[in-house]
Amino acid sequence: MNIIVAGCGRLGANLAQMLDSDGYNVTVIDEDTNAFKKLKQSFKGKFVEGIAFDKNTLLNAGVESADALVSTTNEDNINIVTALVAKKRFKVPIIIARIYDPIRAEIYRKIGISNISPTLWGANKAKDIICHSDLFRISTFGNGEVEIIETEASIFLEGRYVENLIIPSELNVVSIVRSGTAIIPTMDTAFLKGDKIFLAVTPFGKTKIKQIMGI
């Protein structure tokens, strides 16, 4: 898999290093050659000096055979233009852009440009720690709109059914671990005290979990 990482700041350098360690063919673009020093000597990928959205820079980086491009510079405009050029002109299958402005991030997500919004992610994370420190997060999707969390069935939930916990579009039961064995429950699966429950949940659903589960 051929991957281009535009921007060799802390995010870009770490991403490039991880992908390289996993055996992918990685090319890093940055207009400042000193930025490449952030990568370890073990990095086996390619370096290209230049402006990320410039056609010749992208061609030198192998954009015509790229399977994915991630634009991680500190400038929203550069990341957006780079993503658009890679998507529209070179038809790169997977495009990700780092975008700080949450409003713009949503706009570009709607036209098919996946993006990472540190601003939105950070705000969601801070709110999560403050309001829901008793719920253990396993994974997150998008910018935190949906999470997989783990909690334990209290005596309040014992004998109630999965269908009693589900809230359409906000809360769903993914799995239950009982006595060390994981199952995918049905609507009529009853909870037992001590069950580990894995839930897919939105921020709105999180607030309701505590009310439903008595925690």
Explain what this protein looks like in three dimensions.
This protein is elongated. It starts with a strand and ends with a helix. It folds into two domains: 2-119, Rossmann fold; 127-213, Alpha-Beta Plaits (2-Layer Sandwich), CATH 3.30.70. The chain has six helices and eleven strands. It is of the alpha/beta class and 215 residues long. The strands form two sheets. Strands 3-2-1-4-5-6 form a six-stranded parallel beta sheet, sandwiched between helices.
Give the secondary structure arrangement, pairings included.
Blueprint: E1 2-6, H1 10-21, E2 25-30, E3 46-49, H2 55-60, E4 68-71, H3 76-89, E5 94-98, H4 102-110, E6 114-116, H5 118-131, E7 136-141, E8 146-152, E9 171-178, E10 181-183, E11 196-201, H6 203-213
Parallel strand pairs: 1-2, 1-4, 2-3, 4-5, 5-6
Antiparallel strand pairs: 7-8, 8-11, 9-10, 9-11
Rg of Cα set = 22 Å
Domains (count): 2
User: Helix/strand-derived class?
Assistant: alpha/beta
Report the average pLDDT across residues: 86
User: Total number of helical segments?
Assistant: 6
Q: Describe the global form.
A: elongated
Strand content: 25-35%
Low-confidence stretches: none
CATH top level assignment of the largest domain: Alpha Beta
SSE order, one letter for each helix or strand: EHEEHEHEHEHEEEEEH
Oligomer state of the chains in this structure: single chain
Per CATH, what is the topology of the largest domain?
Rossmann fold
Main sheet specs: 6 strands, parallel
Helix percent band: 25-40%
Q: State the distance separating the first and last CA atoms.
A: 46 Å
Write out the strand line-up for the largest beta sheet, numbering strands in chain order.
3-2-1-4-5-6
Q: What's the name of the CATH homologous superfamily of the largest domain?
A: NAD(P)-binding Rossmann-like Domain
Number of strands: 11
Architecture of the largest domain, according to CATH?
3-Layer(aba) Sandwich
